[in-house]
Amino acid sequence: SRGIAGKTTAGPFDSTGGAARPPQSGNSHGTDLNFVSSPTVGEASVQDKPAAAGEGGQQRAIEEYAGRLVHINSEADWHSLQAAHKAAGGLLVAEFRAQFCRKCMAIELKYKKLPAKYQGRAVIFAEIDAQSVGAPLRRELGIDRVPLFTFWSNCEMLDTYLSGKDIGQCMKVVNTRVDLHLDGLDDTAFAGVSLTAPEEPAEEAAPREGVVNMDAMSAWRTAQAKTQSRVVHAPGVSHTATISRKDSTERPPSVSEAAAELRRDLERLEAKKKGEADGGQGKGASASTGG
Q: Which CATH number fits the domain that encloses residue 120?
């Protein structure tokens, strides 16, 4: 039957969409790509195969592609990756994913850590946007569900793994497959590869003790100014007797404290009125006696 790289391969193959490929391990719980409309791809034919590496091509390919996660977003990128893989040798691990796939997002961070874990080993890791590479290439490779991990040697697909329902087991299986296919490979050419750290979202700096948040301070002062200007008066009570706090550096009064202060003001008012009434009665009695 026809192999991925156009060569005749032996052994059982599962034909999907007219493409021959190794039988998928895992199960059919991956996200279906058949209903996805692919963006328009370039004019490069899916029959174009990677060119042979020239002199010094192995080292250039290793330096460019190893030690990091390679992102593939077009058919042309895929063929460039295959050419680099053929020149570099070793193992190629390619994960086919889709932006709408929740499982793909769930395992994304763990997959990005694999280049660091296998630094210095004869392996290249890639992440392929199955939508962006287009339907013709998907049909050729037999990619109809994601996340699908494919394992390559010399541009020949050795193995595939389709993630099942148990996302927690997915990366364990992938690590096991990588170790299996790396067994016996010569890592010498990859030994000096420097690791390119994956880009991670910047974390917000944690608030430091003793550092004043000026926005919060400004909001607090504005609130205190409004509290200071809110004055409640009772008839006969001095303008300075209020239920608001009188010093912006003091703690704002509680509801019970404000009520108690208002009650005292009212009691003082009643006492004042009573005193004025008693004084008026005394003056009236004196006038009657004098008459």
A: 3.40.30.10
Burial of 95 (0-12, 13-18, 19+ CB in 10 A): buried
Of 190, 206, 237, at which residue does a domain stop?
190
Task: Indicate the pTM of the whole model.
Answer: 0.55
Tens-place pLDDT, residues 56-89:
789 999 999 999 999 999 999 999 999 999 999 9
CA distances from 182 to 99, 101, 114, 125 (A): 29, 29, 14, 13
For the chain, the straight-line distance linking the first and the last C-alpha, in angstroms and rounded, comes to 139
The answer to whether residues 185 and 218 belong to one domain is: no
Q: Report d(CA 42, CA 133) in Å as an integer.
A: 9
Q: Give Dmax (Cα) for the chain.
A: 140
Does residue 162 fall inside a structural domain? yes
Mark whether 115 and 233 lie in a shared domain: no
Are 185 and 222 part of one and the same domain? no
Extended beta strands in the chain, E state: 25-26, 31-32, 69-72, 91-97, 123-129, 145-146, 148-153, 156-162
Q: Note down the domain range covering 222.
A: 214-285
Region of 142 please: left (phi>0), alpha (psi -120 to 50) or beta: left
CB atoms within 10 A of CB 25: 13
Domain count, the chain: 2
Structure tokens belonging to residue 188: 């010498």
Cα separation, 285 vs 43, in Å, equals: 118
